[in-house]
Amino acid sequence: MITLESVTKRFGTTTALDAVSLHVERGEIYGVVGTSGAGKSTLIRTVNALERPDAGTVTVAGHRITELDDAALRRSRRHAGMVFQHFNLLAGRTVRGNVELALEIAGTERRRRTARAEEVLDLVGLTDRATHYPSQLSGGQKQRVGIARALATQPEVLLLDEATSALDPETTRSILALLRRLRDELGLTVMLITHEMDVVRTVCDSATLLQHGRVVEQGRLADLVAAPGSPLTHDLFPLGPATASEHPVLDLTFPGPIGAQPVITQLARRHDIDIAISAASAGAVGGTRAGRIRVELLGDGERNAAVLADLRARGVIVEDAEPRGTGTTTQEARA
Ligand SMILES: Nc1ncnc2c1ncn2[C@@H]1O[C@H](COP(=O)(O)OP(=O)(O)OP(=O)(O)O)[C@@H](O)[C@H]1O
């Protein structure tokens, strides 16, 4: 539904996007993550055709938008609805008026506008707020209006730029649940950019991690959590910096069903060794379960080696804990 092939965008001497390729399947919720300045906004702006790349192609809903002239480009924007961090609602218009404006700009005839606005307000659960003004709404309600407005022209793709960053955790959860429902009910394809790893964990099927305009890692989250050394998995399940120790300190990743097994207690019993757990982070992601824990092996060299071999044989991903933490992206940005 969305394909970028070797997209490069420069601003003067800054390369905001450096040969970025990605593919978003129809009906997928796709996250674009990375530190400030990584190129996330530029990427989404090439998808909604606000930015023309210097090289590469962008295809949205079957339209190769990098080859369209300006008039065709304006028409093609209707395939993608855009949702913003700070809602961008007009204070002087009611909720319904804000949604109708999008239809007015798209050239929808007057008598269809009100009916369509009411349809999308119903979809986002705001029917009873249609005649309210933005100042009378909570942040979550404002963002629902933003989503309704983006959906008014029946786009196949919904693009969200830090859409939950200004919301509290509970409101964020309800907006993410709404996105999932809209994807399921309307078959929408959703691309969101975020610096919040909770958002990726809760709602995304796939993601791309950008750094300095380049793709560091991308794919389905269920696959990434099973990939040794995955920087995105480190960010999704952070363990923090490790404390130096005379014993081996290991970060273990348990992809999928292994996480439900009592591996650590079994190994401690089988090898007659004490294992200390100093950090843990686990949860559901991309339709699977995953978790990471940091352990300290307190046995002698031989027993520790046997535990290590056993862990690997069971499919646990074993990495030496890095003293400064292994977060390459959002964790370091927040620090
Ligand atoms: N219009 C512009 N003119 C000049 N430089 C720009 C422009 N837009 C973006 N850049 C630069 O391109 C790089 C990528 O910026 P971009 O806004 O895409 O990153 P981002 O990942 O969205 O960051 P943030 O999370 O802070 O919004 C940055 O170095 C930025 O300064």
Question: In brief, what are we looking at here?
Answer:
One of its GO terms (biological process) is amino acid transport. One of its GO terms (molecular function) is ATP binding. With 335 residues, this protein is of the alpha/beta class.
Outline the structure in words:
By secondary structure, this protein is α/β, with parallel strands linked by helices. The protein is built from twelve helices and 14 strands. It folds into two domains: 2-226, Rossmann fold, CATH 3.40.50.300; 239-320, Alpha-Beta Plaits (2-Layer Sandwich), CATH 3.30.70.260. The protein is 34% helix and 28% strand. The strands form three sheets. Strands 6-7-8-3-9-10 form a six-stranded mixed beta sheet, with helices on both faces. A four-stranded antiparallel beta sheet has the order 2-1-4-5, with helices on one face. Helix 3 packs across helix 4, helix 5 packs parallel to helix 6 (169-186) and helix 10 runs antiparallel to helix 11 (301-313). The model is unreliable at 325-335 (pLDDT under 50). The site of adenosine-5'-triphosphate has 12 residues, from strand 2 and helix 1. Residues 2-237 form the ABC transporter domain. Keywords: Amino-acid transport, ATP-binding, Cell membrane, Membrane, Nucleotide-binding, Translocase, Transport. It comes from Serinibacter salmoneus. InterPro entries: AAA+_ATPase (IPR003593), ABC_transporter-like_ATP-bd (IPR003439), ABC_transporter-like_CS (IPR017871), ACT-like_dom_sf (IPR045865), MetN_ABC_transporter-like (IPR050086), NIL_domain (IPR018449), P-loop_NTPase (IPR027417).
